[in-house]
Design a protein that fits this description.
The chain is an alpha/beta fold. The chain has 2 domains: about 260 residues, Queuine tRNA-ribosyltransferase-like (TIM Barrel), CATH 3.20.20; about 110 residues, no CATH class. Helices cover about 40% and strands about 15% of the residues. Strands 4-16-15-14-13-12-8-5 form an 8-stranded parallel sheet. The protein has a 3-stranded antiparallel sheet with strand order 1-2-3. A hairpin with a 2-residue loop joins strand 17 and strand 18. Helix 6 packs across helix 7, helix 7 runs parallel beside helix 9 and helix 14 packs across helix 15. It starts with a strand and ends with a helix.
């Protein structure tokens, strides 16, 4: 029996969108749901109580980073991830409240960023494609000599993982913190995530670059399938963990619809508690690759679209039947002084915002959700004031922008859920896309 339950409440009439509820031992997650990312057991700049007031029902943390610092044994001694970070009801930094739902990823994305992205900034989307936000040029696997392990270099010590070698058994990598050598296998990833204690966690996988050739995408997909079987076996052998934690398998295959279809079919047959769609795409290929994968997945299992946070991509995922999403984008762009608005992203460092006294509260989505959180996020702060803060490098500016962005995305997804329940999701999506991308 699975450690979680999933009930579909309503399906959209003209798309695969659906509204449901994922039940965990620590509370329900209403879907579609956006999962704020607390990489190191914190959503940057946001207190747990504030995060809950914004409408978040679950958070996701990173296995790789928590393994390196502070170590999974410390998190376990604290009572698990939720207690350690104070993600409790009532919120309590001391961890004395009742734990709320949490998710951990597998560390597999670090295989992607540590190996393929050595010395580069790598994203889920190929920058050669069109889109509102331009992303850095990814690096193909063929550009990185996988037979050679890079040594520690102080120049890259502060960057997110770059030093790794992938083989069929797992990944060997050097810490970006101090250059020490480490090894992840599917079994070790599961062991760490058992200690972290999240309600939902993911099987170890290899996430490839969007520009990797077809042959390598297929090789990585097949390796991911073998790692998925090993992850599942390691989890099922721990009877206690099986009662408390649900394990999701991850579909890979890059931009190629045939590989996505094959991977989805293979992962779906293994007996996971849910399914994640991982990997990377070009913008143009996302719809086809996603549609090919979803068509092979069981209706009864919850589905998580990993690392997706662009508003239009979230709505695209919902239209294709995805239930959960996570991304660091809301807080990442917020830290640099950029905010979501109904008419697209606004960069508050721009000259024209120096004396723009429009209130941030006027730039949120016009919805009935989380109205109590407005006093926490934007309230009566003006664009001119927040522009001043971010130009001055003041911490408060980044915090205000991050909270505004999280409220915006959480409201967007809550609105999509309500629209599904009200049989008007297509109209909701079309109206948002028209305003956000063409307004």
């Amino acid at each position: 029996m699975s450690a979680i339950g999933f009930k579909i409440e309503k399906r959209a009439a003209r798309s695969a969108a659906r509204a449901g509820v994922i039940s965990t031992q620590h509370g329900d997650i209403r879907t579609p749901a956006f999962t704020p990312v607390g990489t190191k057991a914190d959503v940057k700049g946001i207190l747990p109580g504030q995060l809950a007031a914004l409408g978040a029902e679950v958070v996701l943390a990173n296995t790789y980073h928590l393994y390196l610092q502070p170590g999974e044994s410390i998190v376990r001694e604290a009572g698990g991830l939720a207690q350690f970070m104070g993600w409790t009801n009532p919120p309590s930094p001391a961890g004395s409240g009742e734990a709320k739902p949490t998710i951990t990823d597998s560390g597999g994305f670090q295989v992607f960023s540590l190996g393929a992205a050595f010395g580069r900034k790598l994203s889920k989307f190929d920058s050669s494609t069109s889109g509102k936000v331009r992303l850095s040029q990814p690096m193909g696997e063929s550009d990185f000599p996988r037979s050679v392990l890079s040594v520690y270099d102080e120049d890259v010590a502060s960057q997110h993982g770059q030093l790794a070698v992938i083989d069929d058994e797992g990944v060997t990598f050097t810490s970006h913190l101090d250059g020490s050598l480490h090894r992840f296998t599917p079994e070790r990833s599961v062991e760490i995530q058992h200690a972290l204690g999240a309600d939902i966690f993911f099987a170890f996988d290899e996430c490839t670059s969007p520009t990797a050739p077809y042959e390598y995408q297929k090789e990585a997909m097949e390796r991911t399938h073998r790692w998925a079987e090993r992850s599942l076996k390691a989890h099922r052998q721990n009877i206690d963990a099986n009662k408390r934690q649900a394990l999701f398998g991850i579909v890979q295959g890059g931009r190629h619809e045939d590989l996505r279809r094959e991977s989805a079919r293979a992962i779906a047959e293994m007996g996971f508690d849910g399914i994640g769609i991982g990997g990377s795409f070009s913008k143009e290929d996302m719809r086809g690759a996603l549609g090919a994968a979803v068509g092979e997945l069981p209706e009864a299992l919850p589905r998580h679209f990993l690392g997706i946070g662009e508003p239009g991509d979230i709505l695209e995922g919902i239209a294709n039947g995805m239930d959960m999403f996570d991304c660091v984008a809301p807080t990442r762009i917020g830290r640099h002084g950029s905010i979501y608005t109904p008419r697209g992203i606004v960069h508050l460092k721009g000259e024209k915002y120096r004396n723009d006294f429009t209130k941030l509260s006027e730039l949120g989505l016009k919805s009935d959700f989380n109205t109590d959180s407005r006093s926490l996020t934007s309230a009566e702060f003006s664009l001119a004031y927040v522009s001043h803060l971010v130009r001055s490098g003041e911490m408060l500016g980044s915090i205000i922008c991050s909270m505004h962005n999280l409220a915006f995305i959480l409201d967007l997804v809550a609105g999509a859920r309500k629209a599904i329940l009200d049989d008007r999701f297509d109209e909701y999506r079309a109206d948002f896309v028209r305003s956000y991308y063409h307004g």
